[in-house]
Amino acid sequence: MKLSMGIVGLPNVGKSTLFKILTKQDINIANYPFATIDPNVGVVAVPDERLDKLNEMSKSLKKIPAVVEFYDIAGLVKGAGKGEGLGNQFLANIRETNAIVQVVRVFQGGEIIHVEESVNSERDIDIINLELIFKDLETVEKRIGSLEKEARGDKKKEKSLAIMKKLKEELLADKLANSLSLEIKEEPAVKELNLLTLKPQIYLLNGKEEDVAENLKEKIKGLGADFLIFNLAEAENVDELIKKSYEVLGLISFFTTGADETRAWTIKRGIKAPEAAGTIHTDFEKKFIRAEVINWQELLNIGGWLGAKQKGKLRLEGKEYIFQDGDVVEIRHG
Q1: Rounded to whole angstroms, how far apart are CA atoms 100 and 242?
Q2: What are phi and psi of 222, to 5 degrees?
């Protein structure tokens, strides 16, 4: 599966700096609001020493890591949903992403302009989340308009309309969609909207540990989210953000390795072998017979696939097997 993350935040909080560190792309970073107009999109390799070691063992011609797409959009400001600044039109660019990274300024220092003229991290989080809510309200109201025309006499659509109205009430009460009941969140009619406030969020607190107040940490926990603290002015490596993304989204990696290539594949934790095999090729899911499986470390210790086969260390797993993080596999298919 493709993993993609949308980067949001106020202007001048470090969004574009984060993007540049992640992607090593030379983009426009300026000490004024709205330096980013069109969204920057960068593809970042997922760091994984297991892939490196397997590639070295197999002496593969190619090493193909899993990747994450990062979308950096223009900074939002208070009232963006009502047309302030550049408005919130750019939020549509992250509608299809898996999760959101919200960059929050915690560092002080008057030399970097703050669009709100003071540093207040909790206020800034509220501003951004409210703009995400406004964007979701647009989406929900459009859907309600459609359903009111379509639902007459259609029980299924009448139910969807009732759910949309309930969802609208919650958003109007400034509640993120991910705080709603599981029953509402799991409704197909809600899922297909790809709501921004239904996506998992990671708060990247830009500054030093001593800049982060305990009440800010508690606020983020209260939002059902997680956070990382990075001083982006000094950071050269933010691999921890990618690892945290995997954790928050419940993702794992499995591997294939051989003379041609060693490759990492990203899947949701808990999926069964045929669906996992389908990430390699769609035919593998349809025509799955079984998988030969071994843990990456055990394979390294043995020294290769042939040795593992000779020593009887490869497990034959069927359609009910659930792939584990770090599995190395060969798929048998029809």
Answers
A1: 12
A2: -65, -25
**pTM to 2 decimals?**
0.86
The mean of the pLDDT values for the chain is: 87
CA 249 to CA 31: how far, in whole Å?
Answer: 33
- Which pair of structure tokens corresponds to residue 333? 């298919």
Torsion of CA 187, 188, 189, 192, to 10 degrees: 130
Query: What is the average per-residue pLDDT within 86-91?
Result: 61
pLDDT digits over 280-325, tens only?
Answer: 999 999 999 999 999 999 999 999 999 999 999 999 999 999 999 9
Q: Which phi-psi region, left, alpha or beta, contains residue 118 (left: φ > 0; alpha: ψ -120 to 50)?
A: beta
Give the CA angle between residues 24, 39, 36 to the nearest 5°. Answer: 80
Handedness of CA 128, 167, 175, 242 (dihedral sign): negative
Residue-wise burial string across 92-110, b where 16 or more C-beta atoms lie within 10 A, e elsewhere: ebbeebbbbbbbbbbbeee
Architecture of domain 3-248: 3-Layer(aba) Sandwich (3.40)
State the CB neighbour count (10 A cutoff) for residue 192. Answer: 10
Partners of residue 257 on adjacent β-strands: 262
Q: For residue 88, what pLDDT is reported?
A: 57
Do 167 and 177 touch, CB atoms closer than 8 A? yes
Q: How far does CA 157 lie from the centroid of its chain?
A: 30
pLDDT in tens, 56-85: 999 999 999 988 888 887 777 676 555 554
Three-class SS of residue 56? helix
Reported as a single tens digit per residue, the pLDDT across 105-139 is 998 876 666 666 678 999 999 999 999 999 999 99
Choose the CATH number for 270-333 among 3.10.20.30, 3.40.50.300, 3.30.365.10, 3.40.50.720. 3.10.20.30
Residue type, 38: D
Tell me which residue has tokens 């659509």. Answer: 157
* CA distance linking residue 270 with residue 130, whole number of Å: 34
| Domain boundaries defined on the chain | 3-248, 270-333
